[in-house]
Design goal:
Mean pLDDT: 94
Strand order of the largest sheet: 1-2
Largest sheet: 2 strands, antiparallel
CATH topology: Hypothetical protein af1432
């Protein structure tokens, strides 16, 4: 798998946070930890738990370019491709589109038309793996404060980005389907392997 070492992933994350400080760094760490915990609890899927941590740490690395909307997915992909980390770059794109609908976004598109066309083509042709699915799920259950019930995370995002669209409900259903998928492989709720969910959700 073309990803950096854990030490390098943290270095890239810290460098990016220095360029654009914000709660997205803590969120990224928690996405990685959630992915690691769930991967460890799903032996039938044969996921590399350490790789899942690294992928989570870097999924929002496009935030290094400053305060942007959905452009961070494209910027992250381009940055990691240039570093030779193709598999980590892939997650920068796939983590935001569990239902493959580029119109079902939280926030706004701020890419140029040719960049948006590239994204559309990439997501349309991409065959999602369990790594893609897991990082999509973990992005929806991790906040900067820690792991939370998905409902809290989704409501937080909806409120911060100004409400829902016609596509929001379908995207939320996809997230809940991902939750069920991994719960089936764990043999229990995903929240049983994530510490602090109750405290963080109801704090």
């Amino acid at each position: 798998m073309k990803i950096p070492t854990l030490a390098e992933a943290y270095r890239l994350l810290d460098e990016a946070h220095e360029r654009n400080p914000g709660p997205w760094r803590a969120h990224s760490i928690n996405v990685g930890r959630a992915a690691q915990y769930i991967a460890q609890a799903c032996p039938t899927l044969a996921l590399d738990a350490d790789a899942c941590l690294i992928l989570g740490l870097l999924h929002d690395i496009g935030r290094r370019e400053g305060i942007t909307g959905m452009r961070h997915t494209y910027d992250g992909y381009q940055f990691l491709i240039a570093q030779g980390y193709d598999d980590a770059a892939r997650i920068c794109l796939t983590h935001s589109f569990p239902d493959r609908n580029l119109n079902a976004i939280f926030g706004k598109w701020d890419c140029a038309p040719d960049e948006l066309a590239f994204l559309q083509g990439y997501i349309t042709q991409c065959v999602y793996t369990d790594y893609d699915r897991l990082l999509q799920l973990c992005d929806a259950i991790a906040m900067d404060i820690g792991f939370v019930l998905m409902e809290k995370r989704l409501v937080d995002v909806i409120l911060r980005y100004g409400g829902t669209t016609e596509q929001t409900l379908a995207k939320m259903r996809t997230y809940f389907a991902l939750q069920s998928y991994f719960a089936q492989h764990i043999g229990a709720s995903i929240y049983t392997v994530l510490p602090g969910v109750i405290e963080n959700t109801f704090a």
